[in-house]
Amino acid sequence: xxxxxxxxxxxxxxxxxxxxxxxxxxxxxxxxxxxxxxxxxxxxxxxxxxxxxxxxxxxxxxxxxxxxxxxxxxxxxxxxxxxxxxxxx
Length: 89
Prior knowledge:
Blueprint: E1 2-6, H1 8-12, H2 17-29, E2 34-40, E3 47-52, H3 56-68, E4 72-76, H4 82-88
Antiparallel strand pairs: 1-3, 1-4, 2-3
């Protein structure tokens, strides 16, 4: 899961946010990253993305490049579904 906050630049161009998501989805697809769902939110985060990536390293590289664009800052959460968590314990 990726939590997104708009930067000052990002909020000024919030109307372009859906197009930026489409561009990120296309760019990430070439790296094997799937943006499964994206939600625009009201609260401490501006967007929440459900992401599937081949590795943490691949996702980190993509998020660094995204952040360098200047529109968002990200926080990542490693999530586990019930089956994954059951295997861990």
